[in-house]
Amino acid sequence: MIEMKVRGIAVDPNLKTPAVILTDEEEKRYLPIWIGVAEATAIFIQLNEQVIARPMTHDLLKNVIDTLGAKVTKVLVNDINQNTFFARIFLEILDSTEKYEIDARPSDAIALALRTGSPIFVAEKVVINATIVDKEKYKEEMSEFKKFLENLTPTDFKDLPGQTHEG
Hints:
By secondary structure, the chain is an alpha+beta fold. It has helices spanning 37-47, 57-67, 106-116, 124-130, 135-150, and strands at 2-12, 17-24, 29-34, 70-81, 84-93, 99-104, 120-122, 132-133. It has a single domain, classed as Bifunctional nuclease domain.
C-alpha cells in the first residue's frame, strides 16, 4: 500500500468528466480516477474548506459514524478492473476491538477520508497499472542516482553495518 493525497479535481477536456487526482508524497506519480459530478463537488467543497448550510451525503455519513462511536482508520483504493476502480473503507468501533471493512466507490471513500482526516492508500497493483509518472522528476532522480554511482568506490562498502570480515 502506498499512501497518497488528493492533489485536486480536474475535468478531462475530451470526456468533459471530472477526475480526482491522487499523488504520492513526492508528487512523482499521479492517479486520475474519473468520478461523478456530485462526488467531485463533495471533494471540491471539502478541499476548499467551504461551509455549507446543510450536510451533504458524505457529511451525513461522517456524522453517523461519529454518533455510533466509530472512526474511519483509512481508505484504500484496492483494485482496478476494466477501468473501474474499487475501494474499501476501514472502520473501528472506539472502545472495542470491532473492525469493519466496507466496499465503496473510490470517490465516496476519498470524500469521507477528507472529512475524517483519514489517510488514503492505494494498492501497489493499482499504482503500477494506473498511475502516470512525472517524467521530469523521474529523470532528475535517475540523473542524481547515476552521479552517485559514478562516484562510488569499493572503499565506500568498507565497514557497512552487518558486514562480517573473514581473517
